[in-house]
């Protein structure tokens, strides 16, 4: 039991430091937010239930996969994470962070940034008041299950082609069908619209053309107009968490290390 508690503490400390680095770096590079969201989505949605292949395994970082049409412009997000990874790995006591973990945690950090930016906007651009609003009424407490899924494994070969769409160009039926194949429905498609296009409003307008998606699009648009955005943020976190672990067997001992031994002087 004591060893288990030590490992949990080690993992939590490591994850906490990664989150701080990501939050700071994303604040300094806000233009990368939509690409970090798309990177997390496109890495994960390659999962195939029948063959149990694909999923959030970090393979999107590989040049063969990254150069595919659906991943155009995501190289900037990979380069951004690569720089952070070097820094994280140098400081890690429990081994290098996997690309699979870093890509999904990067997506989490980008999503949080959109939540915070919305709060700041509601406060007339006042960053201090926006931070207070987000911390007081935001959804930070809903990320607990996501944070526990820390220990994804990397794949060394690219995932098969044809499993990821050009979301902004693809017919709506193909988008919903692709999500359906990984166990996600219209509700999840609508709430993850920011992951599908760099212009969320334009993607919402596209999805709203479908009668089944329209009610969910409106629900989340209405939620984003409220002070807390509760329905939108909570449902996005739930959908993204499901996406972020597709086909993965989490190693709950990842990033742990033998604790320092102390010699008692008698």
Account of the protein in words:
This protein has 266 residues and is mostly helical. Helices cover 59% and strands 0% of the residues. The longest helix is centred in the first third of the chain and has 27 residues, at 2-28. Helix 2 packs across helix 5 (99-122) and helix 12 packs across helix 13 (230-244). The relative contact order is 0.17. The chain has helices spanning 2-28, 33-44, 63-66, 75-91, 99-122, 127-137, 144-148, 172-181, 186-191, 193-196, 200-207, 211-224, 230-244. The chain has 13 helices and no strands.
Provide key terms for this protein.
mainly alpha, 13 helices, about 270 residues
Write the layout of secondary structure elements.
Layout: H1 2-28, H2 33-44, H3 63-66, H4 75-91, H5 99-122, H6 127-137, H7 144-148, H8 172-181, H9 186-191, H10 193-196, H11 200-207, H12 211-224, H13 230-244
Helix pairs in contact: 1-5, 2-5, 5-6, 12-13
